[in-house]
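Notebook entry, structure prediction.
Reason for the run: the old model in the group folder had no record of what sequence produced it. Starting over properly, with the input documented here first.
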Amino acid sequence: MHVSFRNRLTFFFIVLVILPVLTVAAVGILLVRDSENTRNTTSLNRAQLAAQGLYADARDRAMIIAGTVQKDDRLAEAVRDGDRAAQQQRLEALTVRTGAVRVRLTLDGQPPVEAGDEAAIAPTNGRVVDAEGRPAGQLDLSVTDPNKFAALLRRVTGFDVVLSQDGKTVAGSVEGAPADLPYSGDVQIDGQKFEATGFETPDFEGDGKLGVHVLVPEDQLQDSSVSRNTLGIFLILVAFLVCALAFALTAARSLGRQTAQLVEAAKQVGAGDFSVKVPTEGHDEFAQLGMEFNSMAAQLQTREEELRTASMRLQESVQRVGESVGSGMDRATQLNVVVQTAVDTASARGGRVVLNHGMNGTLEEAATAGDVAGAMAAIGAAEEAVLRSGKPAETTVGDLRALGRPLTQPEGGLLGVLTIARDGDPFSASERETFSYLANQAALSVENVGLHETIQQQAVTDELTGLYNHRRFQEFLTDEVERFRRFGGSLGLMMLDIDDFKRVNDTYGHLQGDEVLREVARVLKETSREVDEPARYGGEEMAVALPQTGLQGAFEFAERVRARIQQLRVPLLEGDGTVRVTASFGVAALPDSAPTEKDALVAAADAALYRAKRSGKNRTMKSG
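New structure, fully documented this time:
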């Protein structure tokens, strides 16, 4: 079958130009959509982690308050005497004093005694002993209810929340939500589409299930920029194909008849040899065709090199995207990916990100790529222009051109500046648009990491005192005991209990008591070293873990703290005057006070604390 020269040239044009462009466009669309799917997954995972973290925090706070209730002497006496009326009265008083939502006391062989709101979640439980120290039953306690928890979770995540229990919706921000919502997948409520995430946990009674559902609106998961980018790629592709097709038709009609030389040259081009030249003697149409053919071969050679370079950059970009996804919430890796991508896409000499640190607006280099030192003059000029105007800026220093853009928070605050610099031509409109997109991604990365760090800090910090909470302290103490076992040395532990703290609450109110707790916590933080771990142990009890500190060193540290607390004069919140505060201390240390176990060390310090209490208060006692 004879194939005309025109048809062969059309085939070569499709294979060498159109197909590679289609491939690059398809890969670009896939990358854009994959990036959005990754962001959607991150949003859902962050909402899931926030829900679980808030629920665990509610249980931790309930555990601390339950410890206070279990130690209450008047409740223990009522349990010992079997006086249910006194038990009921004391539980109601303790519920008000501690801020618990619901408390239930179940004595062996007796109906439970309860106080507070039945609609309570995130319970904790523990054993109760009577005034003689004998086990008597179980105490269940909760510090939150479905409405409070749903409101807090919605405020933290920014998404709608629904809580269900025993086949009913008990709280939430979506009207008409069914109680059988899934814990993952698509949900439609009253015509609105959501993506659901959540978890299931036992309710307060222990015989049912509480479902926690976070509903993310579908329109918040879909980034319109993806559609715009996809449409832009598609329009560019269509425009290119239209232009290419028009050029092919024009060239085909002007070729004339086939010639042996042109066929041979076309075969060599088809084999990948773009260096072939067609004779162009004369000034007729054939000569013009020869010149066009030679020009096309040169262009194809250039395009092949450009595609090869683009392919290499695409592979590097895919690798960086993979590293970025694998890094999770690693700010440095995320920013390095953004800067390197900005440098590559603009063929820049170098680039960097500087971030704002502190209230004085000090800028600190966070990530770099390429030859930053050689382009610093232009980069510095662009950064200065951005900081001065708060808007994108383009500067020229000698042969260097720099492009800078501010990294801004959603509410308008300045996070930092992203800048790149290169030699030669000015930046095109498409390069500025891509650079702007990358800067937005960098700002989003910094914001997300900051939110993640804030949530992590809240999960281990006592809200009232600013000290580490009981759970964080137990983890730290476990690690230090294990380090002591492996490497030796010493480990001190100091525990304190504010003297007559109940009298402060009863006389001046709980707000005044909270102020006393904050002042004592401030003394602990100011007196402790960086390696020490001050924490609120529970109620009015606080503790400090003292690495590489023996028993005598722990005693001297406690005496310094005791003296400073004794000097405290806490102003009254209502009226004139101050509240004087003292505290009793117990100290222990490894290997001096107890076997090499965390619980034994805590028990030794606790026993010394109660000896200090019984000996007259406002003093420090060593273990042993």
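Summary: The CA atoms of residues 576 and 607 lie 38 Å apart.
The old model has been moved to the deprecated folder.
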